[in-house]
Amino acid sequence: MIYKENFNYSFDEKACEKCNAKCCTGESGYIFVSKDEMKAISSSLSLNLKDFKKLYTIKLGIKYSLKEVPYENGFACIFLDTDSKKCKIYDLRPKQCKTFPFWEYFKTHKKELEKECIGVCF
After folding, report:
1. What is the rounded distance in angstroms from the CA atom of residue 92 to the CA atom of residue 73?
2. Is residue 17 scored above 90 in pLDDT?
3. Buried-most residue among 38, 41, 70, 97 (CB within 10 A)?
4. Closest CA to 23 of 121, 122, 113, 88
């Protein structure tokens, strides 16, 4: 069980095995990735940063987001292996992914979080 200060819920990471990657699929959204994260991921894929950005990201103002691909009735992160329901870059996943479900947004949107994550315990 994972607990974070200033959050009134906890997270049972064992639930991930049963959830089928709901946090990586669904409605379209943004998966923000920093320059350092892009460098690490691109290096692991043996790509230069320019090619990585072209193949795997979209630019939004000054930020970059990982691309999404059509999946079932919505979208999936481009790095989700849709067969195994596992992240292909798990050890290098962006901070946004690493900190889920402990986002400030969910402090005031608990019903939405309940629908999205079976591992959350209130």
Report:
1. 27
2. no
3. 41
4. 113
Structure tokens at 95: 């901070």
Burial (CB < 10 A; 0-12, 13-18, 19+), residue 41, is buried
Q: 99 pairs with which residues across the strands?
A: none
Asked if 71 and 85 touch (Cβ cutoff 8 Å), the reply is no
Which of 30, 48, 29 minimizes the C-alpha distance to 38? 48
* d(C-alpha 58, C-alpha 19), whole Å: 27
Beta bridge partners of residue 66, listed in sequence order: 57
Secondary structure (3-state) at 90: helix
pLDDT at residue 54 tops 90: yes
pLDDT on residue 75: 97
pTM of the model: 0.90
